[in-house]
Amino acid sequence: MRHVQVFAPSFPQVTPDVLLQPQDRQVWQVVCGDADHWRAGLYSPEATCAADVTELEKHTCPELFLLIRGRLTLLLSDGQGGTRELELQQGRPVLIETSHTGFCPDGPFTGTAFVVERDLFATEYRAPEAWK
Question: Which class in CATH covers the domain with range 2-130?
Fold first, then answer.
C-alpha cells in the first residue's frame, strides 16, 4: 500500500483562451485547473485488460470521468476484495467514489477520458483484493 498527497495548486500554468497541447501516450496528464477548487486532465491507460491491473487507487474526493475517444473500461472495487467492470460510454459522465483504475480493451492508450477532480486530495493505492 502506498499514499500520495496532492497539494494546491496541482496543475500546470496555461495561457487562457488558447488551445492546450496534451501529449500522446500519457496515462495521466493534468491539463489545467482552478487553484483550491478543481483540476482537469486526460486519462488514457496503458493496461488492456483487468488481468493487467496490479493496484486500484482511491481518492479522498470523487472524480468525474467522461469518455472522449475510443474505448475505456474502469475497474472498480466491489468492497469485498473483488472487482467489477464499468465500460465508459461517450456522452455519459460517471462520478467515481470507490477505488478504481482503468484499461483500454482495444490496446494501450486507445481510449481517453476527460477527468475532473479536486485540486487538493490524498490517494491510497492497494492491490485489488486488498479493498475490503
Answer: mainly beta
